[in-house]
Structures are given as structure tokens and as C-alpha cells.
Write a structure and sequence with these properties.
single chain, mainly alpha, binds zinc ion, zinc, metal ion binding, AdipoR/HlyIII-related, metal-binding
């Protein structure tokens, strides 16, 4: 009995702490002109935003976000909540805008609008000026090789697959990466929008979200591995096969509902990171093989930026900073998951920049001068 009453008094202390912090959160939001906690939605039926302590157990994921939760909302209300302020609004929008951005890039590439697809063009050209000048002799030899090529009209489709210099190389690995990124960003938005509906849907969408992250990581490997080892297909097979196998293992592991809980946050991050670190093996191999590549520094700069963005984002995801430092202050804007989302989009964009350089290089060089 003694321990039960002690637990009760502890619980009361925690509740008063939460309600104190709740007030802090509300006062921050009132500055934004938002009362946050009470809302009347369609047809007079009342759907209220609730605090962390009022959540069903399956939704208690981050105890440092104290309020503005939607719990057990109907699908229609959840859908229209994309235009309302709650603690998932920016989680939905950060990845939805990222999805639209990648959709636009995919369309620009499919319709061959270079001004729109090469968003890093100016940046790349300014960096490349020096390396391009150094490789001008190399380019002259490429021109000579191009002039010795047979008439393009007489090249059969099989011969085109050999990736001859000056001819567009195959695009499917590039679109696999764009498709994987779009799937991840869109499934994440949908997950954040609808997982408040029910426990069943929450588990389903979390699984789809983790699958999306894994697919984005796997498909990110396709363009660099394919284009770097284009002239050495057994390495293509080993590395693409290896990362795909790791991805399938990760998806199967994460499909276990028990691993979707907050307790396994660090384990999930470790699985995703281990796939990323697997990339170091082909990356080191590629740097050794392509040491004389004039685009080496540009590619390394883009890929280092990507790694830095992803690792920084993961750091926020695991540490739950800044909300851990001031619980309740970042409920609506500025909490770790939103920052993590922004870094994911930045990382994917940096990788897109690197992929354009791979494509441009392979288009111009083919396999003839880089066996
Ligand atoms: Zn998310």
C-alpha cells in the first residue's frame, strides 16, 4: 500500500510538472495567436488536440512534446488537419514539399529541361572551372575519340548499351533513385498525417515509413555504383546486390511491431546508419579506381555534404534536441523530428547533385577511355 501511495504521489508530481510545462507550451503558442488545446471541427463535432498524458499508450512516443496531439481522429479530419496547426503539421509539410521538389526534378529530367533539372549547375560550374581547365587535354583526346566513332545512325541498340563516349548512357538507375526518394518522402508525409487515426493504422503507417526510409537508402546507391562501375559489371552486381540484401533484411526486421516503439529509436537509427556506412566500401573502392577522374573533387564534395546532412539529421532524431532541453517549447515548431526531416531533404538533394555529375561524366566518357 505504501509503495502504491508513493507511486500515486509521484504520478501527481509528474502531472503537475506536465501541466506546468503545458502552460509554458501554451504561452509560447498564444504568441502565435493559437490557443492550441481546444478546437471545434466540422458539423459541430468537437475534436480536441490533447496533451501527451492524455494520449493512448501506442502514441506516447516523445515525452518532451507535451501538447497539440491529435488522437483517434477520423480519416477525413486527419486529412484536413494538413491545413491546421498541431504538432505534426510541419512534419507533414517538410516531406511533402520535398516530395514535390523531387517530382518536379523527375519531370524536368524526363522532359529534358536542363535549366530546371540542373539546379546545381551554377554551383558545379564555378567549382569545376579549375578541374575542367586541368582536364582540357583530356577533353581534346575525347573529341578525337568522338571523331573516330562510327556514324550514330548505324549503331544498334545493343551497341548503345556499351556506353560509348559522347552518347547518353542508360538512365534507369537515376530514375530508380528519384523514385525511391519520392516514395520515402510521400510515405513519410502520409504517415505523419494519418497515424493519429487508430492504433492499427499507426502501426501500418510506421511500417510503411520505415520501409520508405530503407528504400530511399537502397535506391540512393544505385546511380553511384552503376555509373562508377559501369565498365566493370561484376562490381556493380556485388555492391548493388549487397546493399539490396541489407535493405531487405532491414525492412523484414523493422516490420516487427515491437521494434516500432520509442524504446528502439536508437536501434532503428543504427540499422539505417549501418546501411549508409556499408556505402563506404564501394565509395573507397570508387575513389581508388577513379583517382584521376577530373570530377573527383566535385563528387566527393557533394557526397560528403550528403553524409554530413544525413548524420546531422540522425543526431537530432536520436537525441531529441531541442525539445529535451525545454519540454513543451517546441511542440508546434522546431522540434527534432522536423529538423531531421529538413536534413533528409537536404541530404537527398546533395546526392541528386552528385548523381548529375556521374551522369554527365558517363555520357561524355563512356567506357572506352576508362576500362
Ligand atoms: Zn518523420
Amino acid at each position: 500500500m505504501g509503495s502504491a501511495s508513493k507511486r500515486k504521489s509521484n504520478r501527481n508530481m509528474m502531472d503537475s510538472q506536465v501541466s506546468h510545462n503545458q502552460k509554458l507550451g501554451s504561452s509560447v503558442c498564444s504568441k502565435r495567436g493559437n490557443d492550441g488545446q481546444e478546437r471545434t471541427l466540422s458539423k459541430g463535432k468537437k475534436y480536441v488536440l490533447v496533451s501527451f498524458r492524455d494520449l493512448p499508450d501506442h502514441m506516447k512516443d516523445n515525452e518532451f512534446i507535451l501538447g497539440y496531439y491529435r488522437a483517434n481522429w477520423p480519416l477525413k479530419e486527419a486529412l484536413f488537419s494538413i491545413f491546421r496547426w498541431h504538432n505534426e503539421t510541419l512534419n507533414v509539410w517538410t516531406h511533402f514539399v520535398g516530395f514535390l521538389l523531387f517530382l518536379g526534378l523527375a519531370i524536368a529530367n524526363l522532359m529534358q529541361v536542363p535549366q530546371a533539372s540542373d539546379i546545381f549547375g551554377l554551383f558545379s560550374r564555378s567549382i569545376l572551372t579549375n578541374t575542367e581547365m586541368n582536364s582540357s587535354n583530356h577533353s581534346k583526346s575525347l573529341l578525337w575519340i568522338s571523331s573516330k566513332l562510327p556514324d550514330l545512325k548505324h549503331i544498334t541498340p545493343q551497341k548503345m548499351d556499351l556506353s560509348l563516349p559522347g552518347m547518353p548512357t542508360t538512365r534507369w538507375p537515376f530514375y530508380v533513385f528519384l523514385g525511391g526518394s519520392m516514395f520515402c518522402l510521400l510515405s513519410s508525409s502520409i504517415c505523419h498525417l494519418f497515424s493519429c487515426h487508430s492504433h492499427k493504422l499507426n502501426i501500418l503507417f510506421l511500417r510503411i515509413d520505415y520501409t520508405g526510409i530503407t528504400i530511399m537508402i537502397i535506391t540512393s546507391f544505385f546511380p553511384p555504383i552503376y555509373y562508377i562501375f559501369q565498365c566493370d559489371s561484376h562490381w556493380q552486381f556485388i555492391y548493388i546486390g549487397g546493399i539490396t540484401a541489407m535493405g531487405v533484411f532491414t525492412i523484414v526486421t523493422l516490420l516487427s511491431p515491437s521494434l516500432s516503439s520509442g524504446k528502439y529509436r536508437a536501434f532503428r537509427a543504427l540499422l539505417f546508419c549501418s546501411m549508409g556506412f556499408f556505402g563506404l566500401v564501394p565509395a573507397i573502392h570508387a575513389v581508388i579506381v577513379n583517382w584521376s577522374n577530373p570530377k573527383r573533387d566535385t563528387i566527393l564534395a557533394y557526397e560528403s555534404a550528403m553524409a554530413l546532412f544525413y548524420l546531422t539529421g540522425t543526431g537530432f532524431y536520436i537525441s531529441r534536441i531541442p525539445e529535451r532541453l525545454k519540454p513543451g517549447w517546441f511542440d508546434l515548431a522546431g522540434h527534432s523530428h522536423q529538423i531531421f526531416h529538413v536534413f533528409v531533404v537536404l541530404g537527398a538533394l546533395a546526392h541528386y547533385g552528385a548523381t548529375l555529375v556521374f551522369l554527365d561524366y558517363r555520357d561524355r566518357v563512356g567506357c572506352e577511355v576508362n576500362p
